[in-house]
Design brief:
Blueprint lengths: L1 H19 L24 E6 L7 E4 L5 E4 L2 E5 L5 H12 L8 E6 L9 E5 L6 E2 L7 H8 L11 E5 L5 E5 L1 H5 L15 E4 L5
C-alpha cells in the first residue's frame, strides 16, 4: 500500500512538472520593424501648424474617442494615422475655407494607439501598459515595470505576439533580470503582451 501511494506521488509530481514546462518556442532575438511608423493614438498631443495662418495653428490633445477638433475642422478621426497623412487630411478639410493650405503636424506625448502598446501582466513589480518605441527590448520593458516580483517564475514568462496571430514565445526573464544574462534579451514588437506567471514553489 505504501508503495502504491509512493508511486502515485511520483506520477503526480511528474505530471505537475510537465504541466509547468512551456511548449512555446523561444522568442527571436531581433524583429523586423524597418517599415515601422509611429501612429497617433488617444492621449497624444498634436501641434498643428498652418503656414501663414497663425490664427489656425494650434495645439490639441487627441480625445479618448480618437478624434480632434481644431479651428474650422470638427471631429476629425486621427487614431491610427501617421503625422504626414493627418497633415494632408487637415489640408483637404481647410481647403474649403482657405486657398492652398500647407499644414505640418508635430506629435508630442507619444502614447500611440492601443493596438501598438506593450502590455505587461502577472508578476511584474508594476504591471502596466507601455508605449512602444522602435528597437524596444524586453530589458527596456522590465526596467519600466520595475522588474519581477519575488513570486514570479520569470523563466516561464511568455510573449504573446498579436501581430503574428497571437503566437506565443518563451522569454527567460529570471535569467535576464536576476542573473544579468543579456543573451535572454529579445526585441519586442508593437502590440506584444508579456505574461509573467507565479512560481509554484
Amino acid at each position: 500500500m505504501k508503495r502504491f501511494f509512493a508511486k502515485c506521488l511520483l506520477v503526480c509530481a511528474a505530471a505537475g512538472l510537465a504541466g509547468c514546462a512551456t511548449t512555446y518556442p523561444p522568442a527571436p532575438a531581433t524583429v523586423d520593424n524597418a517599415d515601422y511608423n509611429y501612429l497617433i493614438g488617444p492621449g497624444d498631443n498634436l501641434n498643428i501648424v498652418v503656414w501663414r495662418n497663425p490664427e489656425l495653428s494650434t495645439s490639441v490633445p487627441v480625445r479618448p474617442d480618437g478624434k480632434i477638433t481644431t479651428s474650422l475642422v470638427e471631429d476629425l478621426p486621427v487614431t491610427g494615422r501617421d503625422s504626414t497623412t493627418l497633415a494632408r487630411e487637415i489640408e483637404q478639410a481647410l481647403g474649403k475655407y482657405i486657398r492652398d493650405p500647407v499644414v505640418t503636424v508635430l506629435v508630442t506625448g507619444f502614447v500611440g494607439p492601443y493596438s501598438q502598446q506593450i502590455r505587461v501582466l502577472g508578476e511584474a513589480a508594476k504591471p502596466q501598459t507601455l508605449s512602444y518605441k522602435q528597437k524596444m527590448t524586453v530589458l527596456d520593458v522590465m526596467i519600466a515595470v520595475g522588474g519581477i516580483t519575488d513570486f514570479a517564475d520569470g523563466n516561464r514568462a511568455t510573449l504573446l505576439r498579436t501581430s503574428e496571430g497571437n503566437k506565443q514565445y518563451t522569454v527567460r526573464l529570471k535569467d535576464l533580470v536576476k542573473r544579468g544574462d543579456v543573451s535572454a534579451n529579445v526585441e519586442v514588437k508593437p502590440g506584444d503582451v508579456l505574461i509573467i506567471p507565479q512560481s509554484w514553489f
